Every structure is written in structure tokens, then in C-alpha cells.
Amino acid sequence: MESSAVGGTIVTPERRRWKFPGTALTWLAVTPFAAWAVARVAGLERGSLPTQIMTATPYAAAGSLVPLLIASLGRRRAATVVALLATTALGFSVLPRALGSAEATTGRPMRVMTINMLFGRADVATIMKLVREFQPDVLSTQELTPGAVADLDAAGLKELMPHRVLQDEWSAGGSGLYSKHPLEPLWDVMPPVGHQMPAALISLPGGQSIEFIDAHPFPPLGPQVTSWNEALADFPSASPDRIRIIAGDFNASLDHAALRGLLARGYKDAADTVGAGLIPTWPANKRVPPIITIDHVLVDERVGVKEVSVRDVPRTDHRAVLAELTVP
């Protein structure tokens, strides 16, 4: 306020400062992401719904930047610290999946392809095109029906991959392993929990045989979450006596403690190893693009990973995963 030369007083109005959200609103934004970070890091998801929600962790990691911005701009120190810790924890949980690189290891080359065929409806022509181009040593199939078996053989798979262990069913429960090399079925590897999960000892040229398991636990929906946990716990640990590969639809992402527990028993995720671990595989061929990664190729720590790619296959809700490996 100042005096005017002609009399009177000039009043300068004070500028109104925009007020940032209050403390309560800031904590309301920060708390869910902080809780998510704690649950993810400590593996605290329990029950069906929390288990399903945990697959969205990569999106939560990106979203956690918003409350961090709100807290820092609002100069809420305690909230800023908590938000920063949550973002850091989620970031360290997710970002390494995009930062891997090919492993320069020597050994026998081995190529693996896995595809969930959605009740046998997956486009056989596309699958056969991928088989001819990629030339996998092993093809792991889930939701394999007798009709799909016949269609694949009619399209030429019988000549390209004549060795197989099939447990096909007219439902989502069927599975099957196809191989270019002779194989020996292993009937006592997996207990009867989840869908059919055949296993075989594959005579890969140039060394010892490779044990291979076709993975397809039940999805963690409702009471099936118990069977899902049991199946992931029942996969055998890596063994010094035999190289083992587990490939298929795990109905689990790397943000699930149950799958990380399996990895901790001597395996690594092939896609994660080469920086392709954030490429989503489900749901494919929908109005929305794939959003989560639940199809995996898990390999013994001694196996080298050169490349992993994901391909679209019409008429199934899963994308095919192709892994190029080197086996001791």
C-alpha cells in the first residue's frame, strides 16, 4: 500500500497463491503405492484378488511417480520420503527386466517355443509358419485338444517334430510336448495338480539329455489360487545332475512371490535375462493390447540365453514365446 501524489491511497491486492493438496490428500495418494511396494518386495500377496492385482506391478511402478510429484511439489517432506522409497522399490523390482543382454556362452544350441492354444483354437497355419522359420528343438503346447493335434499333424508337424508326449484333452487341461529329437516320457515329475503338465527327457545331440516340463498351473482365480501355489511349489528344483527347462503358461508373472520362489531354486527367466521380461504375452488378440507377462521359459542357471522374442498367433489369447538357448 502506498500514497498517491494527487491524494488518496493506492491499494495493491495480494496475489493469491495456489495451494497444493493438503497433508491428508497427499497421504491418500502416497499410501496405496507404498503398500504395494511393501507387498511386492516382501511377497505378501495372499488370496485370489491380491494375487491377480500383483501382475499390474509394472504399471504401479510407473504410476508411483504421480504421488511422488504431488508430495514433492506440496513440500510434504515425510510423504515425499515415503513416496520416493516406494517408487525406488517398485522401480528396482521392474526395471531390471528391460536391462538384460544376450549371454555369450558356449554350448549346444537349443531352441524352445511355447504357445497356449486356447482350447485348441489357435491358428495352425501361423504356428506352423513359426515352427518352419524358428525351427525349435522343442514345442511346448498348452490347452491342446485332440482336434488341434490332428490339425497340426495334417499341417506338417508330424514330419518336422515326430517325437512327442501328448496329454491332449477336449478342454483347457490338455498339453503336449513336440520334439525334433527322440524323447523319453517322464510320468512322475509333476503331481496331479493343475492342468496336464507332461515332462520328458529329450536326447539333444552332443551331450547329456535335457529334462523338459510343459508348465500350465491353474490360474489363481477364486479357490484355484491354492492349487496355483501348490503347482508352482511342486516344480522340481534345479539339479546338478541334469539340465532342466520349464516352459509354458505359468499364469504367473515375475511379480508373484510364488514364481520368484521357483526361480530361487536354481532357475532364471529367459526373457528377463536378455531384457525382454516386460514384453506382455496376455491377453492377445483382444480390443485391448496384451498387458501382463505370464508365459515364460525358465532355464537352469547353467543354460545360456541368446535371444527371446514374442510373436502373435491369431485366435488365441496368448502370444507365442520363442527362446534361443545354449545348453552345456
Automatic annotation (TrEMBL):
GO terms for molecular function: endonuclease activity; exonuclease activity. Residues 113-318 form the Endonuclease/exonuclease/phosphatase domain. Keywords: Endonuclease, Exonuclease, Hydrolase, Nuclease. This is Endonuclease/exonuclease/phosphatase family protein. It comes from Nonomuraea phyllanthi.
